[in-house]
Amino acid sequence: MPDVMNGIIELRDVEVTLGAYPALRGVNLSFAEGKSTIIMGQSGSGKSTLLKVAAGLIPADRGRVLYAGQDMFHMSEHGLLKMRGTNGFVFQDGALWENKTLFENIALPLQVARPGIGMDELRHRVARALERVGLEDSANDRPAALSGGEKKIASFLRALIVEPTLVFLDEPTLSIDHAMSERINQMIRDLKTRGCTIIAVTHDPTLTATLADRLVIMDAGQVVEAGGFDEVKKSRHARVRAILAQVLGEIASYDTDLLELLDGGREDGAP
Question: What dotted CATH number matches 9-86+165-268?
Answer without folding.
Answer: 3.40.50.300
